[in-house]
């Protein structure tokens, strides 16, 4: 069979969620030109026995690394093993919703360079309970301008499961290993793909229920301060996106999503005292629009952070009601 789409699932020690992830896909790809493969990064739980049993029964591909090669190299294996015309790396804790594959295949019929799919938050697994989608459902939005497409995708270029890339363009990227350790390898690869001219699509059908993070084990200031800044001002600009567009998106993200990350994870993460403030403050202090908010968010006692978070939630709710 000539596959139109490869869904590659990198996984490590999440057998329960992985089983649900695969079960959400299988009914949708029956008799469709869709390849499913699982890349197991040497899990130590029952992932191997479970996936061998399921792959034998349902006929998808299961690969197990001999050693744990790290998440980034496991992502790259998904890109390298894909034989479909398009490739989607799907998180093992993200679930495709009913009708998602049918909608995605309609997008791929347009022969785009890249597709970004709409998503919602996963609130409950059994049965699946989800939030409202983040984008209004209004069909496919087709772009011929990368800047306008990126404005629509915004910070979700970092959300691996939401990006579907033309496989040939991905596999032709030289030295993809240079992006290992950036925390956004999938996003740098997406920007490399965006060097190609053609159609870009945002599919606003609610395709995906994404598991939210309650805590993070990394230095949030380093990842969303230093590394996200590098992603935008190197990766995005290098693919041809205008610097003015990048700055517009960066400031917007600092005002909303990244500020929410800082407030939320300072509250929930015990390791937040160890985060290096310089990584985020060195960048945000360049922009007067956000300087004061981050000065308070990063340096204030936890009680003040909680108050800031409550105020932010109230403002978001009011904006949705306008």
Can you offer a commentary on this structure?
With 322 residues, this protein is of the alpha/beta class. It has two domains: 5-210, Alpha-Beta Complex (Spore Coat Polysaccharide Biosynthesis Protein SpsA, Chain A); 220-321, no CATH class. The protein is built from 13 helices and ten strands. It has helices at 15-29, 47-58, 71-81, 100-108, 146-153, 167-171, 185-193, 220-238, 243-255, 257-268, 278-284, 288-299, 302-321, and strands at 5-11, 34-40, 61-64, 86-89, 95-96, 114-124, 129-130, 140-143, 163-166, 200-210. Strands 1, 2, 3, 4, 5, 6, 7, 8, 9 and 10 form a ten-stranded mixed beta sheet that branches. Strand 6 and strand 7 (129-130) form a beta hairpin. The longest helix has 20 residues, at 302-321. It starts with a strand and ends with a helix. The mean pLDDT is 96.
Key phrases:
322 residues; alpha/beta; Spore Coat Polysaccharide Biosynthesis Protein SpsA, Chain A; 2 domains; 10-stranded mixed β-sheet; 17% strand; globular
């Amino acid at each position: 069979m000539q596959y139109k789409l490869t869904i590659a699932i990198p996984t490590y020690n999440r057998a329960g969620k992985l089983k649900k992830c695969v079960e959400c896909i299988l009914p949708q790809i029956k008799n469709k030109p869709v390849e499913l493969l699982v890349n197991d990064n040497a899990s130590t739980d029952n992932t191997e026995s479970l996936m061998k049993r399921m792959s034998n029964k349902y006929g998808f591909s299961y690969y197990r690394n001999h050693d744990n090669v790290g998440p980034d190299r496991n992502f790259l294996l998904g890109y390298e093993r894909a034989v479909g015309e398009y490739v989607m790396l799907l998180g093992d804790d993200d679930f495709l919703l009913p009708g998602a594959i049918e909608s995605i295949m309609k997008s791929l019929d347009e022969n785009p360079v890249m597709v970004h799919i709409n998503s919602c938050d996963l609130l409950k697994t059994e049965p699946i309970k989800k939030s409202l989608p983040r984008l209004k459902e209004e069909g496919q939005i087709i772009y011929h301008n990368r800047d306008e497409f990126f404005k629509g995708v915004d910070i979700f270029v970092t959300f691996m499961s939401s990006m579907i890339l033309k496989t040939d363009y991905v596999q032709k990227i030289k030295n993809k290993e240079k992006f290992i350790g950036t925390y956004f390898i999938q996003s740098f690869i997406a920007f490399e793909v965006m060097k190609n001219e053609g159609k870009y699509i945002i599919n606003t059908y609610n395709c995906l229920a994404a598991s939210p993070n309650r805590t993070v084990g990394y230095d949030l200031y380093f990842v969303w301060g230093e590394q996200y800044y590098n992603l935008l001002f190197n990766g995005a600009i290098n693919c041809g996106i205008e610097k003015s567009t990048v700055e517009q998106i960066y400031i917007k993200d600092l005002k909303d999503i990244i500020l929410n990350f800082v407030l939320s994870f300072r509250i929930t993460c015990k390791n937040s005292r160890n985060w290096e403030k310089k990584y985020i403050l060195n960048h945000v202090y360049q922009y007067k629009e956000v300087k004061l908010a981050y000065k308070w968010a990063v340096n204030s006692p936890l009680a003040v952070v909680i108050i800031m978070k409550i105020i932010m939630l109230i403002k978001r709710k009011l904006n949705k009601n306008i």
